[in-house]
Design a protein that fits this description.
The protein is an alpha+beta fold and about 280 residues long. About 30% of the residues lie in helices and about 20% in strands. The chain is built from six helices and nine strands. Strands 1, 2, 3, 4, 5, 6, 7, 8 and 9 form a nine-stranded antiparallel beta sheet that branches. A hairpin with a 4-residue loop joins β8 and β9.
Length: about 280
C-alpha cells in the first residue's frame, strides 16, 4: 500500500475536511511499520526505506521489491456500525419520540393528559413516533416517513394533534433537488392559508381554518426545512382514532394547541430526519 493510497483512505474516512487529517502522523506510522518489516526480514537496507519515501512524496510509486509485503491494517478504523433499515428506523423513531414529547409537554400546561390514539398503531406511549409509509405518494419518493398523533385532554375536553415527518429522496428526482412547495394551493387560500419564512430559512404554509364546520375545527401547517425535512401538523378539536379518520364531532370548543404552538413545534431543531 502506498502513502498516497493511505492518504486517500484517511481523507475518505475522516468526518472533517482534508486539513484535519494528520499527514505527518500517518507518514511516521507507516515508516515505523515498514521499518519493523525490514528488520524482521533482514533483506532491505535503511537506504531503501528513504528511497521509497522520496518516490512516494514526489507523487510516484515505490519500485517492486520482489515479494509483496502483507497489507497493513486499516489506518483509521470506523467505530460506527452499519445499521439495517429497520435498525435505523427504530433509532430515528426513538430520537423523534423524545423530541416530540419534550416539546408538547413544554407547550401545554401541567394539567393536560396525553392519551394514545390509533395513529400510533399498537403503541402504548402516546408520544411514540412510528414509521409511516405515505400510501398516497409514488413508491420510493420519500426516504423516510414517521408519524405521531396523541390525543390531548384537559378541562375543556379532548382534542388531537397529528405530526407527519418525512424527507424526499433526491435520487428519485432524476438528479434534481427536492422542490419544496412555496405557496398555498388555491383550496387552502380560502381557509386563510398564507406563507411565511422561518428564522433559519424554513418555508411555512399556515392554514388556520383548514376545516371549520358544524363546530369541528382543524388547523394545519406545512413546513419545509433547509435540509429537506418536511413536516405537516394537524390539530383537531376531537379525539382522532386513525390517520385516515373522518371529520369527527367536536369534543371541545377550541383547538388544544394554537397555530403559534404548532409553528414552535415544527421549528424545533430536533424535529428533522437525520442522515
Amino acid at each position: 500500500m502506498t502513502y498516497r493510497s493511505i492518504f486517500d483512505e484517511a481523507i475518505s474516512a475522516e468526518p472533517g475536511p482534508p486539513s484535519s487529517v494528520d499527514f505527518q502522523a500517518i507518514v511516521a506510522r507507516e515508516r515505523r511499520r515498514r521499518r519493523r518489516l525490514v528488520l524482521g526480514a533482514g533483506t532491505v537496507a535503511s537506504g531503501a526505506i528513504a528511497a521509497v519515501t522520496a518516490v512516494v512524496v514526489a507523487g510516484g510509486h515505490p519500485p517492486a521489491t520482489g515479494a509483496a509485503a502483507p497489507p497493513p491494517p486499516s489506518v483509521i478504523a470506523s467505530t460506527t456500525p452499519t445499521l439495517t433499515a429497520d435498525q435505523w428506523n427504530a433509532r430515528e423513531a426513538a430520537r423523534l419520540t423524545t423530541v416530540v414529547e419534550a416539546k408538547l409537554r413544554a407547550l401545554l400546561p401541567p394539567g393536560v393528559t396525553f392519551l394514545d390514539s390509533g395513529v400510533n398503531g399498537k403503541a402504548t406511549n402516546p408520544f411514540e413516533v412510528v414509521p409511516y409509509p405515505p400510501d398516497d405518494l409514488p413508491p420510493n419518493t420519500y426516504a423516510n416517513s414517521f408519524v405521531v398523533g396523541p390525543n390531548i385532554r384537559d378541562a375543556a375536553g379532548t382534542g388531537n394533534v397529528i405530526v407527519y415527518i418525512h424527507k424526499q429522496m433526491t435520487a428519485t428526482l432524476k438528479g434534481r433537488s427536492p422542490q419544496p412547495q412555496t405557496s398555498c394551493i388555491p383550496e387552502f387560500v380560502a381557509a386563510g392559508c398564507h406563507a411565511e419564512t422561518g428564522p433559519n430559512g424554513e418555508i411555512l404554509l399556515i392554514t388556520p381554518r383548514f376545516h371549520d364546520e358544524h363546530g369541528s375545527k382543524i388547523a394545519r401547517i406545512d413546513v419545509t426545512k433547509p435540509d429537506g425535512t418536511e413536516i405537516t401538523i394537524d390539530v383537531r378539536n376531537w379525539a382522532d382514532g386513525s390517520v385516515e379518520g373522518q371529520i369527527g364531532a367536536p369534543q371541545r370548543p377550541d383547538l388544544p394547541l394554537t397555530v403559534e404552538a404548532l409553528v414552535e413545534l415544527a421549528l424545533d431543531p430536533g424535529l428533522v430526519i437525520q442522515a
